[in-house]
Amino acid sequence: ALHIALPQAPRAGQLLTLLIDYEAGEGPGVCWLSPEQTAGKQKPYMYTQGQAVLNRSFFPCFDTPSVKFTYSATVKVPEGFTAVMSATSWEKQKDNTFVFKMSQPIPSYLIALVVGDIVSADVGPRSRVWAEPCLIEAAKKEYDGVIEEFLVVGEKLFGPYVWGRYDILFMPPSFPFGGMENPCLTFVTPCLLAGDRSLVDVIIHEISHSWFGNLVTNATWGEFWLNEGFTMYAQRRISTEVYGLPYTCLEAATGRALLRQHMDATGEDHPLNKLRVVIEPGVNPDDTYNETPYEKGYCFVSYLAHLVGNQSKFDAFLQAYVNRFKFQSITADDTLGFFLEYFPELKEKGVDSIPGFEFDRWLNTPGWPPYLPDLSLGQQLMRPAEELAELWAADSLNMEAIEAVDIMGWRTYQLVYFLDQVLQKSPLPEGNVKRLSKMYPKISKAQNAELRLRWCQIVLKNNLEAEYNKVKDFLHSQGKQKYTLPLYRAMWGGSEATRALAMETFSATAPQLHVNVQNYVKKILGLAAAE
Prior knowledge:
This protein is α+β, with helices and mostly antiparallel strands. It has helices at about 135-145, 145-160, 200-210, 225-245, 245-265, 290-310, 310-325, 330-340, 345-350, 360-365, 380-390, 400-405, 410-425, 430-440, 440-445, 450-460, 470-475, 480-490, 495-510, 515-525; strands at about 30-35, 45-50, 70-75, 80-85, 90-95, 95-105, 115, 120-125, 125-130, 165-170, 180, 185-190, 215-220, 330. The chain is built from 20 helices and 14 strands.
C-alpha cells in the first residue's frame, strides 16, 4: 500500500490535487508480448488486465470495485504503434501522443490500455473493430452490423446505453481469456473469428456487462454474482429476443452442465460454491474464480423472475434497478432490498423466507441451486443431437438413419451438444470416428474454436492418429486457457503417442503462451513452473 501524509488535516468535502511520480511495468497487471506472441509476428504488443485487483501494479489507485471515478490519460508511444484505452473520448496529437478521457465514473479494474500495431474498421453507427492489420478484414466481415442489433435489443430491455461507443478489440492469439468487458472497448479472443459468424453471440455476454457490472457494480469481489449472475440473465434475455427460446435454453443447458462439472470436481459444500464468498485478507480474488457466480447467480436471478411470474414486469424491474443504482457499487442487500421495495405485494407475502428458498440460503449456503429455471424448450434441439450421437456409438452403423439427419442447419450450441454426447460415449467402436470425420467436414474441418476444441478431444479419446495434426494446429493457433488446458490434460492422460504429442507441441508453442497458461501447462506435464 502507498501511504501519503498530508501537510495539514483537510476539511470534509475539500478537493485535493495529489501528484504522484511513479514508474510501473513489471507487475502482473501489465502484459508485454514479444512479436511471436502476436498474430502478425512483426512487432511487440502490450496490454493491461485489471480485473480483479491487478491495476494497482499499473497505476496508483483505490483498487477496489467499491470506489468509482472518472479518468484521463496522455499516452506517448513509438512511431508505428497505436494506443487505445477504455475511454469515452480519444484523440491523436502530434508526436504519436494519444489523449483519452473517460467521462463516466468507473471502478479501477475497468481501466485498460493497449499499445500495438493495430488498426480499426467501422462495423456500425457506434461501433468499430480493432485488430492487428492481418486480422482486420476477418474482424470486419464477422461483426459488420451485428453489434448494433444486440445493442438495440439491450437498450430496449435494460435502458439507454450510456457509454457512447461500443468497440471491440481483437487481442493477439496468446490472450488467455474469452473476453474482458472494458467499457467502450471490449477485449476479446481472436478465437471468436470463426469465419461464419457462428460465435458472435459470445459478444452478447460482454455487451450485457454495459448495464450489469460496468454501470451497476458489485461493491466487493465476494459478491461477484451481482456482476456475473445478472449479466448471464441479461445475455440470455437478449439471446431469447434475437435467436428464440429453444436455442437460449440449449445454451443455458451447456452452462448448467459446466456448473455440474465444477461442483462435482470441488464437492457441493465447498465454501466457494456460495453466492456470498468470504475472501480473507491476503487472498487474491482471482483464486476464487469459478462457475458459481455465473450459473448459480443466473439461477437466483431466474428465481426472482419466477417469483414475479411475469416476464415484462420483471424486465421493467431490471430497468428500474439499473436506473436506481447506475454509476454506484452495491451489495446483495441493496439489490434484494430494492426488489422487495419494488414489489411490495411479494414483500407482504414474505417471499424472502419461503422454506428451502430463503434469500439467506441462496447467498450463504454452498451447493446446488435450490431452484432451476425450466430449460425443457431446449429439448427440441437436444433430442435430435442425442439420437444422432446414439447412432454413431453403435457397433454396426445404421447409415440410412444417419444420412436421414441433416446437420447443415444446426447452430453452434446444437453441434457442441452433439459433440459433447459423442465425447461422453467415446471411445467409439473401431472406425466410427473416421467415418464421422469424413461425413461431417462442417465439424472435422471447422474453424469455430468451440467445435475445434471438442473435435480435438474426440480425436484424442479415440486415438485417431491420422488427425493428431489438428490438435497440434489448434494449439499453435491460439493460447486461450479454456481451450489449451483441457487438451493438454487429455494428451497427458492418454497413450505414449499423445504424451509425446503434448511435449512436442508445448516446446514449440510455449513462447507464444501467456505466462500463467505456460505455468498451468507445465503443472499438467509435470515440468517445473517458471517464477
